[in-house]
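Quick look at the format.
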Amino acid sequence: MIDLRSDTVTRPTPEMYEAMCSAPLGDDTIGLGDDPTVHKLQDMAAERMGKEAGLFVPAGMMGNLLAVKLFVRPGEKVVCDYRTHAYKTSALAMAGANSVSLHGNRQGEMDLDELSAVMRPNPYGPSARLLILENSSNGAGGTALTPEYISRVAGLAHSRDIPVHLDGARLFNAAVALGVDVRKFTQHVDTVMFCISKGLSSPAGSLLVGPEDLILEARKQRYIHGGSMRQAGILAACGIVSLEKMVDRLADDHANARLIAEGLADIPGVSVDLDLVQTNLIWFDIAGTGISGDAFAGRLHERGVWLLALGPTTIRIATHKDVSRADAIAALGIMREVIGELT
């Protein structure tokens, strides 16, 4: 089976399994908080992102939720692109925040003039209290927001005393794609969440990093929302391997995604914007083939390839460490054959 549904399906590496077995453990709940492996991962995460402190959380959803709760009171507004994961999921609703979503361009970038307008103080109702950016932008096709863009947008928000949270679920993909240190993205924002459970291949977990006082408050909120774990060092040990060993190899996933995307672009009836294939994600449309997304995904599953149909004819593919170049070539060949059969 070639699983292209998501980079969340990655399996731990042999080194991660070894690290789980040998990790020093403690209790990471708020009353004790003495798991040494969790502390090591949190310190590593903060250092890599250029921030004061870090907090290990079970999932990116919780990391984003905690960030919103740090800055936004119920009823106040969060500004983001309409494709932002926090907007499309329940993170904002769970925090009791209202949202103002803007239609950014095809790269996932919001217009600065529109941002300036929605971030003006509102004397008659709730004002904007937080700006959320997502990098890479899943909904825009896995595109990477540049450090220059983030600097401009964050500068505008900060001029209005509005903090900026960066949803960096796939932030290392963006850094590898653009060939820059990840701190080029994070130096202009207040808090950052990034996942270790996607392309970095840990079995679970994300990190929220930022100023020490905010992370201390986030730790309390993590406890309130059921995110504290006991011997969490078993999972944190994998995250340490992720940060030490799994970042540079993301370039392989990007190359495999590019290979598949270029092959898809040559198939009649398939529409894929190659300019947007910058990381490990491929969004494409098969409307021109006359095949439905569900029919396409179903036939491919029978042939040993899994992918996601995210609309009537919209398909998403994600490459990851468990998809080799040979797998990418084989999957492309099977997709070409299935389209031929169904048309």
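Next, a different chain entirely:
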Amino acid sequence: MLAARRNGQSTNVDALLPEMAPELRVKAESALKMLGSYGKALVAFSGGIDSTLVAYLAKLSLGDGAIAVTAESPSLPSSELEEAKELAKEIGIKHLVIKTEELEDPNYVANPANRCYFCKKELSIKLKQLAVELDYSFIVDGTNADDLHGHRPGAAALTEEGVKRPLADVGMTKPEIREISRVLGLPNFDKPSMPCLSSRVQYGEIITPERLTRIEKSENFIRSITGVMELRVRDHGNLARIEVGRDERQVFFNDDTLDKIAAALRQYGFTYVSLDIVGYRSGSMNEQSVTSSKSRLGSEN
């Protein structure tokens, strides 16, 4: 079993890490020192590789002063919650599950382009309430250096609420997080990113529990018969647009597979089912707004 533990009572962060590339060690040691300076901290723990690394490092540097906290909500696939529980157990960090209520917020339900802001705001507020109850002064999350670029309204909400981001602060990128996690033996070092189910819904389409459920069912079914790793079922109202990793697209070039997927997704509530031939790419829901902006600019010139 993998378990993050202090090396005796040593406060030497160098003794807590295995051999790794010098540039990675510098960043990992810096993150450990930063976490250690907090004394104790709650870790926003989704079970993704970023938050898993933070939880592992927090356990190394803070021991029992580190607590991983996972939010249970309709926008989190049930399989992800169970995986987070198992990961926390494997790391050896205390784990709590709290309920968030972003679907009670009309701003979130309306699904604007900054929807993530309202989700992270709700999460941050619930974490701060828990921190007060437990007498903890610090909350940390897995934001990495790459997350500080592009359309990231959720990061703004976390910053407003004072959530610390040790990985980003030491300049740790996603590829570096994966490599450090591999060296540390974290089991999900190569796990594809898994943002919340609401990220699959076209902006402007109302977020409902039923809509999130059909997305989760659709992705579970497709994975069960194809075994693909990188997958999104994008919800465009009555149209399901399936994105898979570019090197996995050939799995769908089979009449029987296509027929089964179409039948299942129509049963779940979609009228039309399509395969995006471009393949999976992060943030594809933002492409329509970018295209629209370019079109408006072109018409003005």
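Residues 13-184 form a domain with the Rossmann fold fold (CATH 3.40.50.620).

See the schema section for token definitions.
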